[in-house]
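User: My instructor asked us to take a sequence, write out its structure as tokens, and then describe one feature of it. I'm not sure where to start. Here is the sequence I was given:
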Amino acid sequence: MKKGSTFTAYILISVAIFFWGLSLIWTDMVIDMQVPVFVFTFLRMCIAGVVMLIASGISGKLQKIQKGDLKWFILMVFSEPFLYFIGESFGLKYTGSPTLVATIIATIPVFVMILGYIFFKENLSLTNRAGVLITLTGVIMFVLLGGEPLHADYFYGLAIIMVAILGSCGYSLICKKLTSKYTPFTITTYQFVFAIPFFTVTFLIWGLPEWKPEFLSFQVLRPILYLAVLCSCLCFGLYSNAIDKIGMTKSSIFTAIIPIVSAVFAYFMGRDSFTTLQLAGMAITLVGVVLSQYKPLQR
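Assistant: Let's start with the prediction itself. The structure tokens for your sequence are:
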């Protein structure tokens, strides 16, 4: 692999992480405007799918799905965006904290590593094991030391976030398999086009009964457009490219930066607050994630 292409991959994934950090802020804005989760996720998928279809038509770079791979695309779409977006959105709705959700999401590399150990017997060094324990300690600190009374919905939101983590783990594993045959552009296009039927079903069952005409106002659509175009179309394409160029493990480590981006913007935009102990918990979590993925250089 050329050094230049690797450097470019790092730059592009950094752009993706920046917008993904902002995505939790924009999602929180939509939730604050009382837009049901199954409504704005449906709108987000429709916009993202249409944008990718237009881009594929203009570029002419969309690859055909090879025989036997359709099931992997469908399973990938079910994992993420379907499970992930629902888990993330409802987790944010019930916890009310973009920074908390981002911090827990940042532990995804740890869960990917644990699954690799369970199912593929991948070796874990003492440093990796210590990283797992440090990560869990940091998350527990952040969750329990907020300085406010904990309630049932809060813990319900934490449980739902686990759905997002499972979805992201499944996506990473399948996306790594598909990048050997398909370009990031192709993967991202099918990802959001195939996601439309999934979210259409949930919209018709739970979203449509709560539909209001004001959901199509510019005030509501603006953050949804940001989520669809920047955080979906652009970021997933950049992330798929990074998985292809620098690997799944190194790419997943970058997700540890998301809570920092979310925390900074949430704080200055007045959408979140946290105690000193929570900040310490977030820092401990990020250190744990990096240690859990550390592998010494080989000769």
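For the description part of your assignment, you could build on this observation: The chain has twelve helices and no strands. Try explaining in your own words what that tells you about the chain.
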